[in-house]
């Protein structure tokens, strides 16, 4: 499934939109449309992370209630990005490097604790799904 991080309001929240499948060491995610407005940040950019879950775990598309524990088996450090045609300029700054519509981004981790991570364009076929027995050992992308 794809979990979108929405941070342009208060409080931040997550939104589930999109599903996929895993076959061996390959995964596929499909979308029938652009993300719903509620999954898109106010500046016109949506940031989603592919999240691997057990097949038995089902979650409807929509805002994820804080009481729901998503038992992830893995996730992408890079992201699936969606940029609206009317996205507001270059906010966040890294979004200027992406065209309108769906694309993927590799996490560019900041060396400065005072500066958020960013994304650079990445071929979506190269977006790795990270797995580990302890997911806390995977460096996540702190883009917000």
Report on this structure.
The protein has 144 residues and is mainly β. The chain has one domain. It contains no helices and 11 strands. It has strands at 2-6, 13-16, 19-23, 26-30, 45-53, 62-63, 72-76, 79-83, 101-108, 118-122, 129-131. The strands form 2 sheets. Strands 1, 2, 5, 6, 7, 8, 9, 10 and 11 form a 9-stranded antiparallel beta sheet that branches. The chain has a two-stranded antiparallel sheet with strand order 3-4. Strand 3 (19-23) and strand 4 form a beta hairpin. The chain is globular, with a radius of gyration of 15 Å. The two termini are 21 Å apart.
Topology, please?
Layout: E1 2-6, E2 13-16, E3 19-23, E4 26-30, E5 45-53, E6 62-63, E7 72-76, E8 79-83, E9 101-108, E10 118-122, E11 129-131
Antiparallel strand pairs: 1-2, 1-5, 2-6, 3-4, 5-7, 5-8, 7-11, 8-9, 9-10
**Main pleated sheet:** 9 strands, antiparallel
Determine the N-to-C terminus distance: 21 Å
Shape assignment: globular
Helix content: under 10%
Order of helices and strands: EEEEEEEEEEE
Q: In terms of per-residue confidence, which ranges show pLDDT below 50 for 5 or more consecutive residues? A: none
Mean pLDDT: 88
Number of domains: 1
Q: Helical segment tally?
A: 0
- What would you report as the Rg, rounded to the nearest angstrom? 15 Å
Number of strands: 11
Strand proportion: 35-45%
By secondary-structure content and strand pairing, the structural class works out as mainly beta
Descriptive labels:
144 residues; mainly beta; 9-stranded antiparallel β-sheet; two-stranded antiparallel ribbon; globular
